[in-house]
Write a structure and sequence with these properties.
Elements: H1 17-39, H2 47-63, E1 87-89, E2 99-100, H3 103-116, E3 126-133, E4 136-143, E5 146-152, E6 158-160, H4 163-166, E7 183-191, H5 194-206, H6 215-223, H7 228-232, E8 237-246, H8 255-264, E9 274-277, H9 278-292, E10 300-307, H10 310-316, E11 318-319, E12 322-323, E13 326-330, E14 334-347, E15 353-364, E16 367-373, H11 377-383, E17 390-395, E18 402-407, E19 431-434, E20 439-442, H12 452-460, H13 472-480, H14 495-499, H15 506-519, E21 521-522, H16 524-530, H17 538-548, H18 551-556, H19 559-563, H20 570-581, H21 583-594, E22 598-599, E23 619-623, H22 631-640, E24 644-646, E25 655-658, H23 664-672, E26 675-677, H24 679-688
Helix pairs in contact: 1-2, 3-9, 12-13, 16-17
The chain binds 2-(butylsulfanyl)adenosine.
């Protein structure tokens, strides 16, 4: 380091005039080249020359930090990382656009507008037609010609402060010069062109980092960086498409003119926009752009038509969240062909089996697709799709991609019809179909690897076996360590085993073992509910317990016997039958009892006919707090009188018991005109019966 005292040090208070002048000139020159390069695509110097100018500017600023204003070109390289985004309230809300999908929608839009602005039938409305860019909306605010802040759209009212990141986008002017209105807000779309997107993903892959599914997500991910040095390396661009706040009331008379003025101030404006007349002009532009779409350097997902005259925009006004004077005409869904490499099934946490087609990857509707869900067995049959088939994949907007058809002409001669698995790929248990192939489910609920964690978490939950202190994290740990493979193993756990796990001390281990021991003595309805038989909730478990009294009786019962119960339909009856017919489930139940779980059988011989009870056929909802008893006591008493007690209010509800601090359920009861009782009324009712 040169310590020569004649050289100004970084702490000197003011830069000599000559230095300040050099700084100002250099800044202006760099910004000029930024515009030529990024906005006009017409650079006049080499990258090397540009870098040298930038280096010199950085040097000047490091020697004279007071020269480094927030709008210096050096600020584009990225500021210090933030801890979090702060919020910015939009002075004018950032709206979205209404959508149109076909010619008729455009005719309707035009007709509505003509009516709104009272136009006689002779004249044709003038619109600005612009590509609908597929990126992220941004608001950028300037005061006295200097960029002050930039924000995301957020919820339309409040967005996130992304100033530090937006400044790294070289085509965004940091200062606007003399002609700019004193207060000016511009709005536009930040996006990532295809080429930059491909390069970014390659680089991500090379560094073993996550790749982005489409340019829009890549742009969003790049803008939501707390460290703007990262954003600075991302190939982001922007087109400004609207004015926000503007202190100059005479800025422009038409939308086209306002964009023209913004372009003159140095903002990038999409060069493809056109002023068109009437619906015919709009539709012609739509056709032209549809034809060009695949050749564009960036993704667009439709065309936006905006009424050109600003006074008429004002007259037309807004509906809820969008202006009446603009419409987004969306491109139809994109469809492309590809090959089905394989069809595999996935087992969900509830045992539901979902077939998935593995595809030769293809780029459609703005994303790379390599897997599409085939939903269920019935869908595979409807499509007739096989491994090796060439299929048409469609993706529209944000809708998940799907296979729409199979090209039979391209089917290989040796292809075979797809056989939906009859055994679970995870555990080998039988797969059963529910509702004509709409759902296929693995029956190995208690032993299936894909389901076991979920099964255990449910088993220990409060309304099931109520084992306090056995949260999801601990279940994960126990399963991962191989200490429990099924719910029956819970009762074999020892404090010594727990002590070896991360996060356990003597006291917590003892507490958990005590909770496990305490849960052994239980009631039949709880145990049945805890088993997690598909679609058997608390109410059904209660009914099964009251009707059959004992697990042996249940597992010996037939599907028809279950179906005879008031609230059990054919699907639930089938689920119960299959559950108890599956040997692995029977084994787990046996082990539970061997490991010490016990319940008091219910003497069903003494049973009264449920239908003869005073509250039979009544569906009751309890809401709010009770002071004379707990809600679950109240529930039990009502159930013992034959009532069905449910959790949500619907048209089928007969009575709502409203305790203290009741919320939306009480309100809903009132809306639906359902009878309600307060605690006093409930006590009187129980007493009278
Ligand atoms: S004008 C008040 N013009 O589309 C109207 N929006 O669904 C404000 N978009 O959030 C929007 N290209 O991010 C407008 N040429 C364009 C656009 C455009 C893309 C986005 C914008 C907005 C969304 C509306």
């Amino acid at each position: 380091m040169n310590q020569d005292s004649n050289k100004p040090s970084a702490n000197d208070s003011a830069a000599p005039n000559a230095v300040a002048e050099e700084h100002a000139q250099l800044s202006a020159e760099i910004e000029h080249h930024n515009r030529l390069y990024y906005t006009q695509d017409a650079p006049t110097i080499t990258d090397h020359e540009y870098d040298q100018m930038m280096q010199r500017l950085i040097e000047l600023e490091s020697q004279h930090p007071e020269l480094q204003s927030a709008s210096s070109p050096t600020q584009r390289v990225g500021a210090a990382p933030l801890d979090e985004f702060t919020q910015i309230t939009h002075e004018q809300p950032m709206l979205s656009l209404s959508n149109g999908f076909n010619d008729q929608d455009i005719h309707d839009f035009d007709r509505r507008l003509r009516k709104e602005i009272d136009l006689d039938d002779e004249r044709v409305l003038e619109y600005v037609a612009e590509p609908k860019l597929d990126g992220l909306a941004v608001s950028i605010f300037y005061e006295n010609g200097q960029l002050k802040h930039a924000a995301t759209r957020g919820d339309g009212k409040v967005g996130e402060d992304i100033t530090h990141n937006v400044k790294t986008i070289r085509s965004v002017p940091l200062s606007l010069g003399e002609k700019a209105p004193q207060r000016l807000e511009v709005r536009g779309e930040i996006f990532m062109p295809h080429a930059g997107f491909a390069k970014l993903n390659e680089a991500q892959k090379a560094q073993d980092k996550k790749t982005f599914v489409n340019p829009r997500n890549a742009a969003a991910g790049s803008l939501r960086q707390l460290d703007s040095a990262v954003t600075a390396t991302r190939p982001l661009e922007i087109f400004i498409y609207a004015l926000g706040v503007n202190s100059d009331a005479d800025f422009a008379n038409t939308h086209a003119e306002s964009l023209q003025k913004l372009a003159e101030l140095g903002f990038p404006v999409c060069p493809l926009l056109r002023v068109v007349t009437g619906v015919q002009g709009c539709l012609q532009y739509f056709q032209d752009m549809s034809a060009q779409r695949s050749d564009l350097a960036y993704e667009i997902d439709g065309i936006v038509y905006k009424l050109n005259r600003l006074d008429w925009q004002k007259a037309a006004g807004f509906i809820a969240k969008a202006p009446r004077w603009a419409l987004a005409h969306k491109f139809p869904a994109q469809e492309k062909s590809t090959l089905v490499r394989d069809i595999q099934v996935q087992v969900g946490r509830t045992g539901a089996i979902t077939p998935v087609a593995r595809l030769e990857p293809l780029f459609v509707g703005g994303v790379t697709v390599s897997n599409v869900t085939l939903h269920n067995k019935a869908e595979i049959e409807r499509l007739g799709v096989r491994v090796g088939d060439t299929v048409v994949v469609r993706r529209a907007g944000d809708v998940i991609p799907q296979i729409v058809s199979v090209n039979l002409e391209k089917r290989p001669s040796n292809s075979l019809a797809y056989q939906f698995p009859s055994a679970c790929p995870e555990c080998g248990s039988q797969v059963v179909a529910e509702g004509e192939g709409i759902i296929s489910r693995c029956t190995g609920g208690l032993i299936c690897g894909a389901q076991v964690k979920q099964a255990i978490t449910h088993f220990v939950s409060r309304k099931a076996m109520d084992i306090d202190g056995m949260g999801e994290r601990i279940v994960d740990l126990l399963v991962a360590q191989g200490l429990i493979k099924s719910v029956a193993d819970i009762y074999l756990l020892t404090a010594e085993q727990l002590l070896e796990l991360e996060g356990f001390a003597q006291k917590s281990a003892d507490n958990l073992i005590a909770a496990i021991q305490a849960s052994k003595k239980t009631e039949l309805p709880r145990l049945l509910f805890a088993l997690g038989i598909p679609q058997v909730g608390e109410t059904t478990a209660e009914q099964l317990a009251q009707t059959f009294g004992h697990i042996d009786a249940l597992s010996a019962a037939s599907k028809e016997e279950f179906e005879r119960l008031p609230d059990i339909g054919p699907i639930v009856a089938e689920n119960i039958t299959v559950f108890f017919a599956t040997e692995s489930n029977r084994a787990v139940v046996r082990q539970l009892l061997e490991n010490g779980v016990e319940y008091t059988p219910i003497d069903v011989s003494k049973h009264v006919d449920l239908a003869s009870l005073p509250l039979a056929e009544k569906t009751i909802v309890l809401t709010g707090g009770l002071s004379s008893m707990s809600r679950s006591d109240a529930k039990k008493q009502l159930q013992s009188l034959g009532a069905k007690v449910t959790g949500s209010v619907s048209k089928k509800t007969s009575l709502v018991i409203v305790g203290t601090d009741a919320g939306s359920k009480a309100q809903k009861a009132e809306e639906l005109g359902i009878e309600t009782l307060d605690e006093e009324g409930l006590l009187a009712l129980l007493k009278s019966l």
